[in-house]
Amino acid sequence: MSEVILQLKDIKKSFDGLEVLKGISLDIKKGEFITLLGSSGCGKTTTIRIIAGLETADSGSVILNGKDITNFEPNKRDVNTVFQNYALFPNMNVEENIGYGLKIKKISKSEIKKEVKEALNLVQLEGFESRMPDSLSGGQKQRVAIARAIVNKPSVLLLDEPLGALDLVLRRQMQEELKRIQRTLGITFIYITHDQEEALNMSTRIVVMNEGLFEQIGTPNEIYYSPKTSYVASFVGETNIYRKDGKTYAIRSENVNLNNGDLKCKVIEKSFIGGQSKVKYLLEDNQIITSSHNGMDVLVSVGDTVFIGWDKCVQVEVIDNEK
Amino acid sequence: MKNKKLGQWLLRLPVYLYTILFVIFPIVYMFILSFLTKAHTWGFTFNLTLDNYRKVFSSFYMGIFFDSLKLAFITTSLVLLIGYPFGYFMGRLNDTWKKRLLILIMIPFWTSGLIRLNGWVIIFRSNGVLDKILMFFNIIDKPLKLLYSYPAVVIGMIYFLLPFMILAVYSSVEKMDWSLVEAARDLGASKFEAFKSITLKQTMPGILSGIVLTFVPSMGLFYVAEILGGNKIVLISTVISEQLTKGRNTPFAAALSVILMLLTSLILSLYKKFSKTNELEGLF
């Protein structure tokens, strides 16, 4: 499991003079589920387009299975992509769509039929062979797009916000299915999302991207509990950034205690969303802290003056990069 | 409620009127006329006859039909061969260059077609512009005598019809979803395979309407054949025009037109069938 399958080495890319990737490097091991997490415009899509060969890096290299593929055409790379808008071929039915890559590899018709059937089983769309893409729902299109990519058994599968267009229920369900598919096939997944919950739930490692750089790389636990920078801390989970004596700390909102501490503040906002309540406080030095409480409503109202605090062991010192 | 319905009806009225007056009526008129008899002096008499059609199906006129179809076919093929790549690359340019090229394509339409045709006469005639240039560079040593030849007619036809193909292809390329080509490339298709299986299929409506816009008029551009081809090249549209003017045989001209129309529709339906497309870019 520890064998490195894909290496990115100091990749840089600019569009019209605007630097989108400012030198990113990453080693990805076989079978990993890597998530690139970041807000839109941070360069995550450009990163996987460079891996897929749909974009050429200005400098740096991409190494797949020990081979430098930086200048390979997209069709010569052992990677496949699940596109954000699905990009299903409208003039082909589901079977032809999924079999497209195999047909190009000149695999026999009966073999293609078999492989397509297996792929459809894996994404739970048995019997959909002759349907046209137009007649499918968003979730079904997504499954076909995934089947079309995995049927080629690539070394690395790239997924560009594949669940972005689906509703919440369907998204949760597809998250679990993607995890199952990834475990079943053992293919390395590189997954793009701006949804931190999705990233925490699915990945073996998360890469937090910010303005063309990898801000932090680590397991979901590391990213969640030991963020290195204030950007990572505020992007992942609900985190307070607290600045004191020239130092910056990240404190998870669930670790903030109400009526148990020495920071005097005023309640400025309160919300109760079934099962969880959130309270926003204005400190005397004008910093804002949020606390969240599970299970019950808290007995304070807007305008109250209260004391809050937290255990010193839950505050993480971070590099302040977003003043 | 009633007023609203009346309003909608009034809005549609011009379309109905136009279609009845300028499309349906002339076709019905032409169809009936084709079964009537030519009067001795002028016009026609109401004697029903099949003689016109018998004449049309004689080997002489069938030969002319065949020649016209051949020219239309050659013209359409060449126009497609030149126009498709042109429209394709134009559709891939940035917006500024797209606009510039569109203007360049439109400019010739601001001048009368007959004047532009006479421009070609000046270029093609013996010791004309083309001969002089080619002789100056020692590519040829005596005039080509291109005017009044088959190639001159073909070039003239291409010149007139190319813009329609370019614009039809261009508008379908503009609408292309390029992520489909990327997906094909990602799945292992070479540039050529992706073009063949994706781009060509996606731009088929443009190709088809380009063919319609080229093939149909190329059957009727008799003045191109007349001016650039002299009397050597006789097209069915030339015959129809002469029957109407010099021959004063309107029923026979009508019969020729009916057959020409049927033939053109038949060929277009065949195109449609073979290309497996039901939509034509901007036409249907």
What does this structure look like?
- The complex is a heterodimer of chains A (323) and B (284).
- By secondary structure, chain A is α+β, with helices and mostly antiparallel strands.
- Chain A has helices spanning 44-52, 94-104, 109-122, 138-150, 168-185, 196-202, 220-225, 230-235; strands spanning 4-15, 18-29, 33-37, 59-64, 67-68, 79-82, 156-160, 188-193, 205-210, 213-218, 239-244, 247-252, 257-273, 276-283, 288-294, 305-309, 316-317.
- In chain A, strand 1 (4-15) and strand 2 (18-29) form a beta hairpin.
- The radius of gyration of chain A is 23 Å and the shape is globular.
- Chain A starts with a strand and ends in a 6-residue tail after the last strand.
- The mean pLDDT of chain A is 90.
- With 284 residues, chain B is mainly alpha-helical.
- Chain B has one domain (63-281): MetI-like (MetI-like fold, Orthogonal Bundle).
- The model of chain B has no long low-confidence stretch (mean pLDDT 89).
- The A-B interface holds A 52-54, 73-75, 79-81, 83, 85, 87-91, 100-101, 104-105, 148-149, 152 and B 177, 179-180, 182-191, 193, 197-198, 201-202.
